[in-house]
Design goal:
The complex is a heterodimer of chains A (about 500) and B (about 500).
Chain A: H1 2-33, H2 43-65, H3 76-79, H4 87-94, E1 99-104, H5 111-117, E2 123-126, E3 132-135, E4 148-150, H6 151-156, H7 161-170, H8 179-182, H9 186-204, H10 207-223, E5 228-233, H11 248-265, E6 271-276, H12 284-300, E7 305-308, H13 324-328, E8 338-339, H14 348-358, E9 363-366, H15 374-382, E10 386-389, H16 391-396, H17 408-413, E11 418-420, H18 434-444, H19 451-463, H20 469-488
Parallel strand pairs in A: 1-5, 5-6, 6-7, 8-9, 9-10, 10-11
Antiparallel strand pairs in A: 2-3, 2-4
Helix pairs in contact in A: 4-18, 5-7, 10-11
Chain B: H1 2-19, H2 23-39, H3 49-71, H4 82-85, H5 93-100, E1 105-110, H6 117-123, E2 129-134, E3 137-142, E4 156-157, H7 158-165, H8 168-177, H9 194-211, H10 215-231, E5 236-241, H11 256-273, E6 279-287, H12 292-308, E7 313-319, H13 332-338, E8 345-348, H14 357-367, E9 372-375, H15 383-391, E10 395-398, H16 400-405, H17 417-423, E11 427-429, H18 443-453, H19 460-472, H20 478-501
Parallel strand pairs in B: 1-5, 5-6, 6-7, 8-9, 9-10, 10-11
Antiparallel strand pairs in B: 2-3, 2-4
Helix pairs in contact in B: 3-20, 5-18, 6-8, 7-8, 10-11
The chains are: A alpha/beta (about 500), B alpha/beta (about 500).
The structure holds zinc ion (2 copies).
One zinc ion (ZN) binds near residues 104, 338 and 365 of chain A.
């Protein structure tokens, strides 16, 4: 009897060992092959990691037991104010995140910043739909469905300025109390999002403001521990009080002026470039003009001109295929196309991914639809095309609700060349990059993903940036110095 | 004049040139898109002449129904909760075609939650049925006299309650609310969290279970279920069942084998009337939150039943909400011991939690040699597991509507099925618990998958391949499988002829 049991136990244990081994092998293979899986951490980094993961597990274990309180399955607006209390967030916030490679210049700073601008002199407002603003020494000679009035007078005329400002502030943000009601579908979201740009436009493109704004934006990035940025810009025509309007080259020059000034003030900052990204909702003739401007700017300031892109709601704009002949002639410009920012599988928008790849795009903006295109994913991998993922943008702009369904987790597990970015953080009151990192790290990535992932994402952002090869080593050095600072001075108890 | 002419020519050349995509670009582009189509599920299928005509009709309607949403996405139903559009489905021509299409086998359904609540209400007209309404909950019991069983309020005859309500129609529609998560008055399920939905879901389950534990009620239940599935053009079913003990009016109880016999006999009777229905097999289940002893007992039961009625028992599975149940690793010793004798059809990866024990169930399901995987929702996040699934040819039983209702995904365009189809994984479509959300047996699931999840270009080849897959990956013995293929092909030909000759589908106003 004993014999039999013993034999049974023995054979069982044997086959069990085998099983456990195969299981461990499989699980480890997954972790190793995922983004960051091959990185090793130093002892000091391990200290950071232990602290980070303890807090991450605390947050996730609680959410696992209380899924109704799991923030990331809800709308960003419903939990964004609670993010700053998260210890994981605080660690991420103070962590150097490298480069910010996908952000649009008109939506960086947030509602309070824009509201503040409305207190400036010479500002006129047109309370039409959408509400528009214009700085001018006289009543603007621009159509307005109602009438232009001085902002200061409009404000003086109301009884309750606080309430007035609160209403005004709403123009400058998509954030609201009941997002599920306000944004039942992508249609309402994008309509509202476009209104935001209409309202912000006149406030920011006033030349003196533009310069100040971009300087402030760079400061904002730096404070979020971002070391380098590539800003997408439609390069709007700037204007003066007397109505003078400049062309795109002047806007580009304004960028140059500010970037130089900022670099002088902050030599430890790695730098900034811009990607000329005008609207995709144009015809071929207009695109031809865009390309001429792009060339002119590139020639004038090759060190700041990173490349070319087309922007606007992809579903509602022209597909890239429309422009392929023209774009093929302009490959010297370096493309950073938005592509596959859509839920529509098998449509022209979806196929933008094919053209972005074939046109030699250096990186792809969003690439949200990539997970449905295994063949294209292989191309992205083979050609080493950086995928700029913006989780919060995709959540706010109605592509995905529960971020656990965001394709980023597929990209990460396949070790696609991913960089994280934030798209239009100002429009939804998010950080330049920390909120996106936090939500991606806790909400999207595997529970087991750790500092190795975060560090690799930061390194990727430098690797896939448009920094010239000869300058990359120095950029990496600056980043490494910041990273080591962060690791060396890390104190778990301070979070 | 000359210069002007020259200038015009140049302009013309430029515009012409702007429209011209170089040959090699077009070729490369075509090659990528073709490779995608070829890789996808159904991509290698060839349609004959008649099928091509049907495909043209199908795709004409698909485009007509999808295109308006592209410009007006606020009207795109599938980005919303299933309950908000389920009543409109019938109006879709694409749906009408899918409904008539033979769908082969349904391989992932749970026995108590297969029947539409309307039919369940009819079952409550059976004699001797007592009900106990208490605390928003409802239990039934068939008995000669008032049941001698615990009830927080009191037991009453359903017939009495119906009569005294004064409004039998209203009474019945209230009763129906206990049989389904779907409420006519549109309760907001939009953003209810997973645990809350599962609590409501379990409540529905226990109510229905109490109604069909009575042997005659169960026989009727099963007959009606077969009718509904057959009407939905399903020819074979594999049912997951916990094999509850049935009882008689006098309170006497049957053993578990008895229910297997009920399934067998009722189905046999049904086949006599409908000879092209192939039959059913059972996958014995146990709740995954239970102890190892309980699961071991269920495994032994499966083993015994399989020995006694081999044609009825397909295998074994563990059920219940995966996140909060025990992970498969808890049962590893007993499962790996049984795996050579019993085929597994394990639920795994029915979770949105990446990197948790529920998520890792996928690893164990694969290593334990599961013949198919129930849901596998989390699989896209695990590339090496996906290649294992592909290599071992493990079919994924995908239940899109279930995943929506049970709170895994909101806009179905984010459902991983899109990736599985694109990768050409061995996928079968099923419906999990169609009764619990008042869905058709499997046509709604096919429809939502086809219109909402798959590529806009996905066509009849996908639908046919999915139907064929359901036969290929069934647990049928070779001989029966061959017969099912025969029945399917015959029905498929009839379906093709019917669609071609259906004038309602030949609306000439559509281009
Ligand atoms: Zn963007
Ligand atoms: Zn199931």
């Amino acid at each position: 009897m004993w014999h039999i049991i013993f034999i049974l136990l023995f054979t069982y244990a044997k086959c069990d060992d085998n099983y456990n081994e195969r299981r461990r092998e499989l699980v480890e293979r997954e972790l190793r092959s995922a983004l960051g899986g091959n990185t090793t951490l130093s002892d000091k980094e391990n200290v950071v990691n232990n602290c980070l993961m303890r807090h991450k597990f605390d947050e996730l274990d609680y959410a696992f037991d209380h899924p109704n309180e799991f923030n990331f399955s809800h709308h960003f607006f419903s939990y964004k104010n609670r993010i700053p209390t998260s210890k994981v967030y605080k660690i991420i916030k103070s962590m150097p995140k490298g480069a910010l490679l996908h952000i649009h210049d008109m939506a960086i700073m947030g509602a309070d910043y824009l509201l503040n601008i409305t207190y400036q002199e010479h500002l006129y407002v047109c309370f039409d739909k959408p509400v528009r603003f214009l700085f001018s020494s006289n009543v603007p000679n621009v159509t307005c469905g109602v009438q232009w009035q001085l902002m200061s007078e409009a404000r003086a005329a109301v009884d309750n300025v606080t309430e007035f400002d609160a209403q005004l502030r709403k123009l400058f943000t998509l954030v609201c109390d009941d997002p599920d009601k306000a944004y039942p579908s992508i249609k309402e979201t994008w309509t509202r999002f476009m209104q935001y740009f209409n309202s912000a436009h006149g406030l920011l493109t006033y030349r003196p403001n533009w310069e100040q704004y971009f300087y402030d934006a760079l400061t904002f990035f730096k404070n979020d521990n971002v070391g380098y940025v590539e800003v997408r810009s439609i390069l709007p025509n700037l204007y003066e009080l007397d109505g003078t309007e400049y062309d795109t080259l002047i806007t580009a020059k304004a960028y140059r002026k500010i970037i130089r000034r900022f670099m002088k003030d902050h030599p430890d900052f790695i730098g900034a470039k811009f990607i000329y990204a005008p609207s995709r909702k144009v015809n071929r003739d207009v695109l031809a003009q865009y390309l001429v401007s792009a060339r002119r700017i590139k020639k004038e300031m090759p060190e700041l001109f990173a490349g070319f892109d087309l922007v606007g709601q992809e579903d509602a704009g022209n597909p890239l295929i429309e422009f392929v002949p023209q774009l093929l002639e302009a490959e010297d410009l370096n493309f950073f196309f938005h592509a596959g920012e859509t839920n529509w599988f098998g449509t022209l928008t979806d196929e933008n991914l094919v053209d972005a790849i074939l046109l030699g795009s250096k990186r792809i903006g969003h690439g949200y639809a990539l997970a449905k295109h295994p063949v294209l994913m292989q191309e992205v991998m083979a050609k080493d095309i950086g995928v700029e993922v913006n989780v919060l943008s995709n959540a706010v702009l109605s592509l995905v609700r529960d971020v656990r369904n965001h394709p980023l987790n597929i990209f990460l597990s396949l070790n696609l060349p991913v960089v994280l970015s934030s798209d239009d953080p100002g429009a939804w009151g998010a950080d330049p990059l920390s909120d996106d990192f936090y939500v991606a790290f806790v909400g999207v990535a595997s529970k087991l993903s750790d500092l190795k992932l975060l560090k690799t994402l930061a390194l990727n952002s430098i690797k896939y940036s448009a920094i010239e090869p000869e300058n990359k080593a120095e950029a990496l050095q600056k980043f490494t110095r910041q990273w080591n600072d962060f690791v060396d001075n890390f104190d778990c108890s301070s979070y | 004049m000359n210069t002007l002419a020259a200038y015009t020519t140049v302009c013309l050349l430029i515009t012409l040139d702007a429209r011209l995509i170089p040959d090699n670009y077009s070729k490369e582009r075509r090659a990528l898109l073709d490779e995608e189509t070829f890789t996808a599920v159904g991509g290698k299928l060839h349609l004959n002449e008649d099928e091509t005509i049907v495909n043209d009709i199908l795709m004409k309607w698909k485009m007509k129904e999808l295109n308006p949403s592209y410009t007006n996405p606020q009207h795109f139903n599938f980005s919303k909760h299933y309950f908000s559009y389920k009543n409109d489905i019938e109006n879709s021509k694409v749906y009408q075609i899918i409904r008539r299409m033979p769908k082969g086998a349904v391989l992932h359904v749970h026995s108590s939650l297969m029947l539409h609540p309307d039919v369940l209400v009819k079952l409550t007209y059976e004699k001797h049925l007592y009900a106990c309404f208490a605390d928003d909950d409802l239990r039934f019991y068939f008995s000669e006299a008032t049941p001698d069983r615990p009830c927080l309020s009191k037991w009453a005859l359903v017939s009495d309650l119906r009569k005294s309500s004064g409004d039998p129609v209203a009474f019945d529609s209230q009763l129906k609310n206990y049989f389904t998560l779907y409420k006519e008055d549109g309760e907001d399920y939009n953003f209810v969290d997973i645990n809350t939905v599962w609590q409501r879901f379990n409540k529905v389950y226990y109510t229905i279970k109490s109604l069909i534990a009575y042997r005659p009620a169960r026989e009727k239940y099963w007959t009606e279920t077969l009718k509904q599935f057959y009407k939905d053009n399903v020819m074979y079913i594999e049912v997951r069942t916990g094999l509850q003990d049935l009882y008689e009016l006098d309170g006497s109880r049957h053993d578990k084998k008895y229910l297997v016999e009920v399934y067998k006999n009722v189905t046999a009777k049904f086949i006599k009337k409908h000879p092209d229905f192939i039959g059913v097999k059972l996958i014995v289940t146990k709740h995954r939150a239970l102890s190892i002893e309980h699961v071991l007992e269920a495994l032994n039961l499966t083993r015994r039943l399989k020995a006694e009625m081999p044609d009825m028992i397909a295998g074994f599975d563990l059920v219940g909400q995966e996140d909060i149940g025990r992970p498969l690793t808890d049962f590893l010793p007993i499962l790996s011991e049984a795996k050579d004798e019993i085929n597994f059809y394990l639920h795994a990866g029915e979770t949105a939690w990446l990197g948790t024990s529920a998520d890792e169930n996928l690893v164990d399901a694969i290593l334990l040699g599961s013949k198919r995987i129930g849901h596998g929702y989390a699989l896209t996040k695990h590339p090496s597991l996906m290649s294992a699934v592909m290599k071992k040819d493990i079919a994924l039983e995908v239940n899109v509507i279930s995943n929506v209702v049970l709170s895994l995904v909101h806009d179905v365009r984010n459902h991983p099925l899109a990736s599985y189809i694109a990768l050409g994984l061995p996928v079968v479509l099923s419906s999990d618990d169609p009764g619990a959300w008042s869905a058709e047996p499997v046509s709604h699931d096919f429809f939502v998958a086809f219109m909402g999840v798959a590529s806009k270009h996905a066509d009849l080849r996908l639908l046919k391949q999915l139907a064929l897959n359901s036969i290929t990956y069934s647990a049928l013995e070779d001989e029966s499988k061959t017969r099912l293929f025969e029945v399917f092909n015959k029905r498929w030909d009839t379906f093709v002829r019917d669609v071609i000759s259906d004038e309602c589908l030949l609306d000439t106003s559509v281009s």
